[in-house]
Amino acid sequence: MKQLLLILAGLIVASCAQHPPKHYTHEVLNAMTPVKNQGSTQLCWVYAMLAAIETEHLRWGDSVNLSPAFIEKVLEQEPTAPPSKRGMGATLIALIQKHGIVGYDAMRTADTPAPRMVFMLGAQYTPQEFAHSVCAPDEYVLLTSTPDAPYGQEVELPEPDNWLRQRFLNVPIDTLLRRTVHAVRRHHGICWESRRHAMSIVGLAHDDQGRKYLVMKNSWGDDRPHQGLEYLSLDQFRKETLAVEMTREAYYER
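Below the sequence we write its predicted structure tokens.
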């Protein structure tokens, strides 16, 4: 038995030597608020879109930290919201225009009563007024890439998560990737979504072989190997992207 254990230990060491943890070098890492944890909820789209808005404001030198729990609570007022509470970044934008938003410290859990007022830098706002100050109507452009519809036109994504039936500008995937990378280099906040998950894009990186990645702020907490960051290869972006949300300034900036 002792000899068998020694053999197994040797195999494990050899395996680790052959497959060391991947190392990433950051080319760009944009400002971000602390990583949050969505827990057992399916609200990654809320966390990702709010994180993108927060990074956009940090770019301006304006620090805001927004409450996912507030959106979790207002979903109870939406008759067409699915029981799973799944949605998209575009859904979040529409919800805060309708219901508003509050700061993270004012409402950290959905069990907390939603504040009726927001106090910021000596001023007082309703949640709706505060929402319009951090995300103006039509400030964000909704983007997708599907060869099944004409490029350059808006299309409704036939996805269960798109329960508000919103329309997205359809562009070629290489155009979307190029504009996304450019926006990241200009320090804009961006929300990225696949059919399985949503994260905020906060940087660019490469590995030791020179392969390129988008640095993603993930809402699974900060106790994972990269302290809340994940790395999405450019090939994964091309294959998995369902939607991207960024400001119009970010998308059209040259």
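The longest helix spans residues 2-18.
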